[in-house]
Structures are given as C-alpha cells and as structure tokens.
From TrEMBL:
Alphabetized PANTHER family for the sequence: METALLOPROTEASE, MITOCHONDRIAL-PROCESSING PEPTIDASE SUBUNIT ALPHA
Residues annotated as signal peptide: 1-22
Protein name: Insulinase family protein
Family stated for the protein in its record: Belongs to the peptidase M16 family.
Organism phylogeny: Bacteria, Pseudomonadati, Myxococcota, Myxococcia, Myxococcales
C-alpha cells in the first residue's frame, strides 16, 4: 500500500567511493558478475554479463526521491521530474527519442520512490550504441519549454486525482502524517496536494532541480545482458564523460523520537473493505548493519503463510482476506508495518490484538528457529527465481544500489539475509516494536462493502 509504484522495494550522501574498476563475482545468492567502474566525473557504471542472446537492459538510477524535497511548497518534484526527463533535448527534440526507441523495439519507462528515481530500457543489443547516445544526451542536456512544463504539471495533477480515487493514497498520507513530524518522509512520492496544484508556476525551480540532482556523482548506470564490454565502456566514456555537474548538498530534517503511541483514522466514503495497519518507525537500511535483513525476515515471520497469524486469521477463523507488510528498504529510518484487510469491521479489535500478540511473543523469546531458517532459504530461492530477465536483474540492482549507496548493495543485502539469527529478531522486536512507538491506522468504509459495516 505505502508504495504507489509497486516494486520491490536508504544512506545519506553520494555513492560509496570505488576504485577505478572493480569486479564482484557470483555468489550462491546472486549468480552474476558485476564489473564496476567509476568515471572521473563520478558516474558509476556497472556491467553485468547475462546470457540473454542479443537482449540488454539499460537501467539508470538517480539518488533523488521525495526524501530530497526539503523546501516548503516544493514536494512532488522528484516524481514530476521523472515525467520531464522524456521531453527531449536540442539534439533530440521531444518525440525523436521515442521514435528511435520504437524502431529498435525498446521497452522504455521509469518510476520514482521515496529515495530514488529509476529509468530503464529493455531491448536488442543492436540498439545499444544509439541508446547510450540518447540517454547520455538527455541526462546531460535536458531541455523543455515552460508551456510543455505546465502541460505536464496538469497531467501529474490528474495522476494524483486518479490515485486518490482508491483508499491507498489516503492511507499512505495519513500514516505518514502520524509517523513523521519533521522528516521529508512525511509527504508521499506524489507530494502534498497543494504543492501539486501549484506546480505550473514552478518552471524555474524545475530547472534548478535538474541541475541540483541530475549529476554524474549522484547516478549509477547498470547495463545487463549480452554485449561487448570494451565497446560499451568506450561509448559510455565518450558520451557521459563531458557530464560534469556536482550533486547538491541539503540537510534532510531528523525526525525526533516518538514518546508515545499514535493513531489515525479514515472514514472512507465508498464501498471497500476495512483496513488496519500497525506501524513502528525502525532503522534505515545500511550496508554496515543487519537492520534491513532482520526486517525482511520479520515480514514473513510475522505475517507470511507459515506464521501463526496467517493460519489463524486467514485460514482458520477467516477474519481477514490478507495480512502482510509494506516494509521496504529506505535511506533513512522509515516504517515497519503489519497490514490487514478485514472482512468485517466488527472483527477489527480481534485482528489488531492477534497481530500484537505475535509481536509480543517474539519479543518474549517465543521463537521458531526452524521457521526462521526456512524463511531465509525461501528469500534466497525467491530472489533467484525473480531474476528471470536482464531487466529483472538491472532494476533490482539499481534499487538496492541507489538506496544503499553502493553498486553491490543487493548482494550485500542478500548475504546479510543468510546471517540473520533468531535471537536478532527478538532483540529487534524488544527494541523497536514497542507499545510506546506504535502507530495505528484504521480505515472504515462509510458505505458497507465486501462485508464491511458502518
């Protein structure tokens, strides 16, 4: 629910320092080699050989998301700028890039999260030289007129209205408002509604945004598939080498400690099912701690199909349609959640207490070590099975690389997953999943729907 753009789904500052060239070999958890080079301008270029027979994925991650939007009145620009990046340059005016991409048969898209913006193209290796030229041009030389900017701003406003028609955006907004008082995670990736409405008047700011964040030292490029490495690197150096901007430095406000439980409630005016969220603010993902790996295991341990909560609430008593978590890795402390879609409003307290009981049991040391090991094995197997195409590999690498600040972030995370000990789950729950740190959000439909009553 909390990620408007459904994907898998971070460290302050720019990317971790790398030698001029480095190689990360395959492991049991990640069976592909990463050949990494950092250009003199700071651009990190990662090439991943993949047996895809003439197919490549070309994925660019910029370490800018809604987290970076620190100026009042200027939320939503990371997402908005994702749209503007398709508007063309002097050398390749709007529409010409898409025409070339279509000629080669490339699938081309992008998405924005709280912490990063990711652009990906997927298609034939034969088009790679032209693709490198086009991508370097737009990241160096993006151009668009004020009328084009204003037109796209209205399209983004329409996107907000479309998302607002379902309960998930409102739930995310209310949960963020309850959880964060100062940190920029308080607003969603789309931004505050009033700021989105005001975007057409912010043309000049948009130009500053591009200069501030779309810089080589704030960007990683992942090329995955079947290609000639030497030729690719020659083209990358030629086309990206002149890119010479430096990333801006801003201070993201630190969230003060939470001193007691918080609640939020939504009366939803349309038929839907009641929802319940339990949330706690928990540590950021980092390559130097086990916090992200622990929370990844906790998701399945508390709500997965082998958990007591799932067996009781979903299978036996059938009080909920589903339970789960919206946890994803973040650069700064964010939320670990337990979510439930109820069948009937009258069962809300029963469901909430059942989930709290599982957390309490965990904190008290009632642990099933065999189930922890099974979850770890399942995570490893699931990751391997999800890497079916160069695009799967490239997007996953880009997400973890951008959030964790190092191109091998995914491998490091997967290695940490295998190291999680049952005692660490208990320690984490005792420290972070406590009564005085909880945030409870409930949604009740005003009109009865799918068993909901009001």
């Amino acid at each position: 629910m909390r990620r408007l753009l459904t994907l898998l789904l971070l460290l302050l500052g720019t990317a971790t320092a790398l030698p001029a060239a480095a190689q990360s070999g395959p492991t049991a958890a990640f069976p592909y080699t990463l050949n990494t080079e950092k250009l003199p301008n700071g651009l990190t270029v990662v090439r991943v050989p993949y047996p895809s027979q003439g197919i490549i994925a070309y994925v660019t991650v910029v370490r800018v998301g809604s987290r970076n939007e620190v100026e009042p009145g200027k939320t939503g620009f990371a997402h908005f700028f994702e749209h503007m990046m398709f508007k063309g340059t002097k050398n390749n005016p709007e529409g010409s890039r898409e025409k070339v991409m279509g000629t080669f048969g490339f699938d081309d898209n992008a998405f924005t999260t709280d912490d990063v913006t990711v652009y990906y193209s997927y298609g034939p290796t034969a088009g790679l030289p032209k693709l490198i030229e086009l991508e370097a041009d737009r990241f160096r030389n993006l151009e668009y007129s004020e009328p084009a900017f204003q037109t796209e701003a209205l399209a983004v406003l329409g996107e907000y209205h479309k998302n607002a028609a379902a309960p998930f955006l409102k739930m995310e907004e209310e949960l963020n408002a309850a959880a964060f008082q100062r940190h920029t995670y308080r607003h969603t990736t789309l931004g505050f509604y009033e700021d989105i409405k005001a975007m057409p008047q912010a043309y000049q700011y948009s130009r500053e945004f591009f200069q501030r964040w779309y810089t080589p030292d704030n960007t990683m490029l992942f090329i995955v598939g079947d290609f000639d490495d030497a030729k690719v690197m020659q083209l990358v150096r030629e086309n990206y080498g002149p890119w010479n901007r430096k990333v801006a430095q801003v201070t993201v406000p630190t969230e003060p400690p939470q001193t007691g439980p918080r609640t939020a409630h939504i009366d939803w005016p349309q038929p839907t099912q009641p929802r319940q969220i339990l949330a706690w603010r928990t540590p950021a993902a980092s390559v130097t701690t086990m916090d992200a790996a622990i929370q990844t295991v906790l998701v399945d341990y508390l709500t997965g199909p082998t958990s007591p909560a799932y067996k009781s609430l979903v299978l036996d008593k059938q009080l909920v349609e589903e339970i789960g978590s919206d946890y994803s890795v973040h650069r700064d402390p964010n939320l670990f959640t337990l979510t439930a879609t109820l069948k009937n409003e009258k069962d809300r307290d029963t469901v909430r207490l059942a989930l709290l009981k599982e957390v309490s049991n965990l904190a008290a040391g009632k642990l099933d070590a065999a189930r922890v090991k099974a979850i770890q094995d399942h995570e490893r197997y699931g990751t391997l099975m999800s890497l079916q195409t160069p695009r799967d590999v490239g997007v996953r690498l880009a997400m973890y690389g951008g959030i964790l600040g190092t191109p091998d972030g995914l491998q490091l995370h997967l290695q940490n997953l295998t190291k999680v000990k049952p005692a660490q789950l208990q320690e984490f729950a005792k420290k972070y999943l406590t009564a005085n740190r909880i945030i409870l959000l409930s949604l009740t439909p005003k009109v009865a729907g799918a068993g909901g009553t009001k």
